[in-house]
Amino acid sequence: MEENKLSNDVIEQIKRFDRLHLTREQRLLIELKKCYEENGLFKECKQINTDREWCIYCNSKHFKRNFKN
């Protein structure tokens, strides 16, 4: 699984984005902003949480690291 992380620049754009535009990229930014507003940033990786206190990317890393256990 390839890990996709948002840059700090993109996260700042998401935080400031407040207009609705019809381009595909801008619709994606709107969805990311909603996710950011609902769930915030994950403390460990500083990426947008995929749920309130859970990050799919960090959870996958922890699972891989601890697979033997």
Task: Provide a count of the helices.
Answer: 3
Number of domains: 1
Largest sheet: none
Give the total of beta strands: 0
Assembly type: single chain
Shape: elongated
* Helix-strand topology string: HHH
How helical, in percent, are the residues?
Answer: 40-55%
> Could you say which structural class the secondary elements and strand pairing correspond to?
mainly alpha
Distance between the termini: 21 Å
Low-confidence stretches: none
Please state the CA-atom Rg, rounded to the nearest Å: 14 Å
What number is the mean pLDDT? Answer: 77
Proportion of strand residues? under 5%
Brief description of this entry?
The chain contains 3 helices and no strands. The protein is mostly helical.
Structure description:
The chain has 69 residues and is mainly alpha-helical. The chain has one domain. Helix content is 51%, strand content 0%. It has three helices and no strands. The chain has helices spanning 8-16, 24-39, 56-65. It is elongated.
